[in-house]
């Protein structure tokens, strides 16, 4: 019997479905390859469920609109690529500072600048962490398959609602445009997290109450009449120049993620237990890496793969454990060496770290990884 | 006459505190700054509109004028330079029952926020936008703005500004705003009425308000006081649309029109979106 819940979807369509499953009811975007399909899909799907879709005048407008919508109580999403992601950084910083939940999808394409719009890339790993100015938290998820895009979109919303922070869903053009059969879970099968709302009387409400790890967030128009500003602010939301309060706030927005990173981390470890050669790979390239592992394991070569689904906060614990066991960690990525910098930092000299890099718009093939494994076997 | 004065005195004074956040005062504005006068007219207009404080969401960008939301007891959102219109669009579309009022400076609305400003007008989404035109960037210390008159001195136009000005009202009208008006801080009672009309209008309503920055524009251009600036630019630099036809051309030339300049009916964005939802649900 044909499985009714199984559907053949493109990665970007799976993202739209995941967003709807998570309760997204507001999307603002500006078209850009290779992420356009997310907006196209939601422009049809959202109004059918009473949700709102708006094509803004640019990406800055789009991120601004989703933050405004979130403050009015919506679960909101924007999606972009390449230069559009650069434009959104100002708003991402604002959402970090004001602790407004929202999800930003960046389907990576070749850069810098207009670069190679239709080509895959993984060159925004560092921008996803450091793109906005100022110290700020970053929660960034990196799915590898169409099914995973669905689940990680849901997880992006859940994390952003739980921690009152923007979450970036980061994948490359290959998974974004690939079609695979996926199962859309039944309603209620996957947990959906919604932000905690205040229950106190409005006159007692502090939108940045630091006696909570994550303060409840009211929505505009529900009687709380609170203030939101991108300036450093006190627990009541109003600006402050007090050095102690400024430092406290700047640290608090980072610590709320740092202190919970064990809950935010998510990795897949493949054949790592007895491995002497490790691979660290994410997104579509993790698929090439997995293929390479299978081939080498057939030849009794002890290779294992660590595949992070949360790339920021960086999976320090898992990489550190791997570095204890293996003689080398191979880091294939479609950029000129970004995640590898973090792997080196965490490995701290306990093992060798080598990158495999490619920026010609072609993916890294399993054979390329196998060639490097051969050198270390 | 005497009786009338006595009756006037008995009327309870307007309670501004009801709309302010007294603990957040004093405000940051300099003595003589026009922004505070505009706030007075704005509060009185809101009071007259009958809207409750919970119904109002006030959104601003960055600048001296954009500090207004911090002082008023509404749902308030102080965003980024030029972006207020897009934040406000998100708030309004997500919750159309809110009355959204945007506060912006001339730099905020017409320079960095120009793109968001024109597209907000084009959509005719229901919100009232106030643009405080003081011919200068106040908050950053007096650089020229898109409304700085040609020849005027700013800290970045020491030899006189060579750039032509943007007419905020023409721009808003051309972009599609369905209510466009201009007021001044000098004519603050008229301004109150104009803002009230703007708030009552369904669609994008834009009110440009000519006010004064004595600290930078005044000092740099040898205008010795706020009152001198108000006389020159606001009282004598504008004419009411109601009078313009009756005045000889020489009394009108070079002056800005004051009052409601444009008012038309056009489908409002959120209402159109609701129709779209009904259509989509049927398909
Ligand atoms: C992206 C960005 N660029 C520049 C600034 C610096 N800045 C702050 S306020 C301002 C100009 C304010 O002038 P205006 O909008 O006319 O308001 P006013 O202060 O005169 O009321 C500028 C340039 C900023 N905050 N953000
Ligand atoms: S600098 Fe100018 S605009 Fe800013 S508060 Fe002072 S007078 Fe007003």
Structural description of this entry:
The complex is a heterodimer of chains A (377) and B (283). By secondary structure, chain A is α/β, with parallel strands linked by helices. Chain A has 14 helices and 16 strands. Chain A has helices at residues 11-22, 36-48, 59-71, 82-87, 89-98, 125-130, 146-163, 173-177, 243-258, 261-264, 283-298, 316-325, 339-347, 366-376; strands at 6-10, 26-29, 52-55, 76-80, 102-110, 116-120, 140-141, 166-172, 179-183, 227-229, 267-270, 277-280, 303-308, 310-312, 328-333, 352-357. In chain A, the strands form three sheets. In chain A, strands 2, 3, 4, 5, 6, 7, 8 and 14 form an eight-stranded mixed β-sheet that branches. In chain A, β2, α2 (36-48) and β3 form a beta-alpha-beta unit. In chain A, α1 (11-22) runs parallel beside α2, α1 (11-22) runs parallel beside α7 (146-163) and α3 (59-71) packs parallel to α5. The termini of chain A are far apart. Chain B has 283 residues and is α/β, with parallel strands linked by helices. In chain B, α10 links the parallel β9 (238-240) and β10. In chain B, α2 (35-49) crosses α7, α4 (106-112) crosses α5 and α5 packs across α6 (168-175). The longest helix of chain B has 15 residues, at 35-49. The relative contact order of chain B is 0.13. The model of chain B has no long low-confidence stretch (mean pLDDT 96). The chains are: A alpha/beta (377), B alpha/beta (283). Chain A binds chain B through residues 25-26, 28, 44, 47-48, 50, 52, 54, 56-58, 60-62, 64-74, 76, 90-91, 94, 219-231, 238-239, and chain B through 24, 53-55, 57, 59, 69-70, 73-80, 83, 85-95, 97-98, 115-116, 118-119, 273, 276-277, 279-281, 283. The complex binds thiamine diphosphate and iron/sulfur cluster (SF4). Iron/sulfur cluster binds next to α8 of chain B.
């Amino acid at each position: 019997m044909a499985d009714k819940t199984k559907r053949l979807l493109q990665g970007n369509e799976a993202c739209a479905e995941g967003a709807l499953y998570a309760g997204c009811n507001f999307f603002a975007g500006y078209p850009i390859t290779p992420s356009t399909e997310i907006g196209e899909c939601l422009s049809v799907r959202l109004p059918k469920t009473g949700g709102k879709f708006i094509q803004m005048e640019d990406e800055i407008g789009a991120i601004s609109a989703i933050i405004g919508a979130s403050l009015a109580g919506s679960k909101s999403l924007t999606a972009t690529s390449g230069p559009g992601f650069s434009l959104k950084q100002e708003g991402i910083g604002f959402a970090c500072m004001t602790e407004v939940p929202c999800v930003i999808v960046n389907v990576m394409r070749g850069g810098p600048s207009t670069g190679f719009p239709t080509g895959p890339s993984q060159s925004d790993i560092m921008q996803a962490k450091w793109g906005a100015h100022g110290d700020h938290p970053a929660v960034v998820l990196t799915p590898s398959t169409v099914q995973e895009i669905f689940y990680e979109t849901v997880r992006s919303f859940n994390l952003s609602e739980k921690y009152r922070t923007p979450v970036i869903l980061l994948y490359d053009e290959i998974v974004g445009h690939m079609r695979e059969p996926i199962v859309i879970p039944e309603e209620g099968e996957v947990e959906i997290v919604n932000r905690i709302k205040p229950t106190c009387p409005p006159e007692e409400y502090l939108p940045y109450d630091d006696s909570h790890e994550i303060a409840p967030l009211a929505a505009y128009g529900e009687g709380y009449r609170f203030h939101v500003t991108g300036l450093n602010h006190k627990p009541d939301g109003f600006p402050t120049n007090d050095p102690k309060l400024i430092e406290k706030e700047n640290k608090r927005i980072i610590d709320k993620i740092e202190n919970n990173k064990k809950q935010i981390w998510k990795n897949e470890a493949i054949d790592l237990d007895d491995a002497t050669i490790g691979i660290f790979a994410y997104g579509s390239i993790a698929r090439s890496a997995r293929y390479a592992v299978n081939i080498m394991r057939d030849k009794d070569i002890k290779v294992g793969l660590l595949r992070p689904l949360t790339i920021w906060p960086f999976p320090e614990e898992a990489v550190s454990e791997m570095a204890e066991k293996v003689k080398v960690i191979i880091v294939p990525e479609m950029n000129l060496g970004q995640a590898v910098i973090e792997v080196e930092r965490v490995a701290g000299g306990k093992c060798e770290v080598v990158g495999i890099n490619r920026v010609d718009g072609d993916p890294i093939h399993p054979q390329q990884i196998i060639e490097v494994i051969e050198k270390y076997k | 006459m005497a009786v009338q004065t006595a009756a006037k005195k008995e009327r309870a004074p307007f309670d501004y505190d009801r709309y302010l956040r007294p603990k957040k005062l004093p405000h940051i504005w300099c003595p003589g700054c026009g922004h505070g006068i505009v706030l007075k007219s704005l509060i009185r207009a809101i009071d007259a509109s009958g809207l409750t404080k919970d119904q109002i969401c006030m959104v601003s960008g960055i600048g001296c004028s954009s500090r207004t939301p911090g002082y008023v007891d509404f749902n308030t959102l102080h965003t980024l330079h030029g972006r207020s219109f897009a934040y406000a669009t998100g708030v309004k579309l997500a919750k159309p029952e809110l009355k959204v009022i945007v506060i912006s400076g001339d730099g905020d609305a017409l320079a960095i926020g120009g793109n968001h400003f024109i597209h907000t007008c084009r959509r005719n989404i229901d919100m009232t936008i106030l643009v405080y035109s003081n011919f200068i960037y106040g908050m950053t210390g007096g650089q020229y703005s898109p409304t700085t008159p040609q020849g005027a001195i700013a800290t970045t136009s020491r030899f006189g500004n060579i750039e032509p000005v943007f007419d905020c009202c023409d721009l808003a009208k051309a972009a599609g705003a369905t209510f466009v008006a201009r007021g001044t801080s000098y004519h603050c009672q008229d301004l109150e009425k104009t803002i009230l009309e703007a708030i009552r209008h369904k669609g994008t309503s834009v009110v440009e308000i000519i006010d004064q920055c004595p600290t930078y524009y005044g000092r740099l251009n040898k205008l010795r006081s706020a009152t001198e600036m108000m006389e020159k630019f606001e009282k004598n630099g504008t004419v009411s649309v109601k009078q313009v036809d009756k005045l000889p051309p020489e009394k009108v030339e070079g002056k800005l029109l004051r009052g409601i300049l444009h008012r038309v009916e056009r489908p409002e964005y959120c209402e159109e979106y609701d129709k779209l939802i009904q259509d989509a649900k049927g398909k």
